[in-house]
From TrEMBL:
Native source organism of the sequence: Qipengyuania profundimaris
Record's protein name: Transcriptional initiation protein Tat
InterPro entries listed in its UniProt record: TAT_signal (IPR006311)
Protein keywords: Membrane, Transmembrane, Transmembrane helix
Taxonomic lineage of the native organism: Bacteria, Pseudomonadati, Pseudomonadota, Alphaproteobacteria, Sphingomonadales
PROSITE patterns reported in the protein's UniProt record: TAT (PS51318)
Transmembrane segments: 12-34, 81-99
Length: 148
């Protein structure tokens, strides 16, 4: 039994780079196949509210409702973000687009919709009571009317 020493030749480096490239393409391709707008919206909302105690399924329910209400240019923009998130992940998008006003507005609008269509404020972010998603504004169209 002989032990061969692995040498660092140009051929071995090229083979290693090729295998690494193929693995990267396969990984990115699998992420593209399984990336959905609902998962992106749920992940973005969870990252925006790190201290909230959000039960399983609540964000998925919100994301499904939110995405179903989007139309036109906003839906197309969300599709572009989903493709980008499949390649660079949601934290990567935060780094890349964190200063873009359109992205910040989209993120702020999405998170605000979740907060006012759930009992987020009444339950102190899920800390004092179980966080529930209603799917509508419980106080009508004006979210501040319940405080009057």
């Amino acid at each position: 039994m002989s032990v061969e020493k692995l040498s660092t030749t140009r051929r071995n480096l090229l083979i290693g780079a090729g295998v690494g490239g193929l693995a990267g393409i396969a990984f990115a391709g699998s992420r593209l196949v399984y990336a959905t707008p609902e998962d992106f919206v749920a992940d973005m909302t969870r990252r925006a509210l790190p201290d909230a105690v959000i039960p399983e399924g609540v964000l998925q329910q919100f994301a499904a409702d939110y995405v179903s209400e989007l139309k036109g240019e906003r839906l197309k923009s969300l599709g572009d973000l989903v493709l980008l998130s499949a390649l660079v992940t949601t934290p990567g998008i935060e780094i890349l687009l964190g200063t873009d006003e359109r992205y910040k507005n989209f993120r702020r609008t999405t998170v605000t919709q979740f907060m006012i269509k759930s009992n987020f404020f009444a339950s102190d972010g899920g800390k004092t009571a179980r966080l529930e998603y209603y799917g509508y504004l419980p106080c009508g169209q004006n979210p501040f009317a319940q405080y009057i």
